[in-house]
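Hey, I was hoping to borrow your eyes for a little while. I'm sending you its amino acid sequence along with the backbone structure tokens. Take your time with it, there's no hurry, and the full record follows here.
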Amino acid sequence: MGDLLLGVHGGANATAAIAVNGHLAHCVQEERLTGIKGYMGFPHHAVAACLHEVGADPSDITEVVYGSRSGPVDHCPRDEWLHRLAGFHQQPQPATTDTEAALVAATAGALPQRVTAMLHHGGITAARITYVDHHTAHAAAAYYGLRTDPDRPYLVLTCDGFGDGACATVSTWTAGQRTEIARTDMRNSLGLLWFWFTHAAGFTPHEDEYKLMGMAPYARPSRAREVADILHGYLSLDPSGLHLRRTTALSIERAWPDIEQRLRGRRFDDQFAGLQLFTEDLLTRWARNAVTATGVRNVLVGGGVFMNIKVNQRIAGLDCVDTFAAFPSCGDESLPIGALYHHLAVVQGHRAIGPLSDCYLGDDITPDEARHAVAGTGLYLHEPDHIDDVLAKLLADGRIVARCAGRMEYGARALGNRSILANPADADAPRRLNQLIKQRDFWMPFAPAILNSHQHRYIRNPDQLRSPYMMLGFDIQPDAATDMIAAIHPADLSCRPQIVDDDSPTGLAAILHAYHARTGRAALLNTSLNLHGRPIARTAADAVDVLLNSDLAYLQLGPYLVTKHAPTYQGSSQYPPLDQG
């Protein structure tokens, strides 16, 4: 079994991770086990799943790292949380101001007692618990997970709603040594501005901010600039250029009613576009100032605000930046990984920490589990000789195919192992996907998976940035729209690609190669395998549930192909029949 180290984050998007002998072995969000999207609370099920994956008992855990020093860990149902948000700005202002001051002080309060109780509830009673500062954990995830040379200096930026009283940090990391240059307290939070924009639009904060970003390109630039100028009047940079600074006595969160009043009467697409433009302007200036102040041109980022692919694209394109990478799914679900990295570096030395090799950190699909999930459902189980070629034929013939094979991806984005795939040249594919399966908001674009050796045909990437985790936006090549019209943003012809290594062993590369051989296209539409409002599928049973409760007709389940119809003839390259479903 080896030496075990458990990493935990409680609160919004609760997650657990475990390392064995200093190597990250498993990471899973609580939502994948409870079925409650964005689960808020303690990751009891995720902790148990981590122990099960490595064959450990709770009594085997003697060391736990927690990815914050303060904050809540008790479960809060979504309806209750949204009810609290609805009344937040009706609270007496002095009381809220006092609460903010306490949060900025980042005192642990009852956190250690509650975390200890939660761990004891799961049978972990003999563990020493170490608490890692929230933004240090975000930065450690980016530095150790993404660095390509342990001797190279890196500039690490973090930005989120808030954690341990802060919302943003600037630090340099050299040979495992972190030097914090600037820390912005949570009263100046850009992330909380997005939070309240999302809530005011009728969406769910911590979860739906991406919907605002998806709507932004539809607005007229001149009207977006008017909104951005209003927002610049509330939040800017201090004279050093390294701290975010509000212009009001009230915090950004408490100033929201005034901001909302200033925006009243403006179209929602203009508001979202203005927020996006403001965010890009502010953070690119902040990043440029940080590079200038430190002289470090290799930039890594973490924290939930950097889920914004257009911001990442702008920073990566700065002339002062040599290299850029964003930690995959870098919201609070990344905190256990960062806490693990930070603790292991202290104990073992920074050179012992290898970079993140991939995001496939969850459950695998075994043949037994696949057969058991299908048994008694009325579905048909096939075992073709070359499943990648069978899937490629289905896709080339216009079929939509789900894929649940290999280890599940960690984080918010499906990367081929828990995905739904489709022909990206089919302009009608988004409508079919939304009508039959996804029920997404009509304006939201889908994303492509592209073979690395063919990326030059589809996207503009002069700096050859890696994008294996869908964390960067790219403009497409002028003649690429026809080949992937269904997997780009229709308003600005940009995309959020997963650039797949040609020799990737996960299976997605093999499907892309087979699809390219059949069609001449080396790209596929890739979206997450889930029903509307539910987390991404984790197990074989979850994937079968999506198949049964949607109009999907084809599912790769481990080594098998599952269909809703019986075969009428055999043959590996023609199998199953394509005249049905």
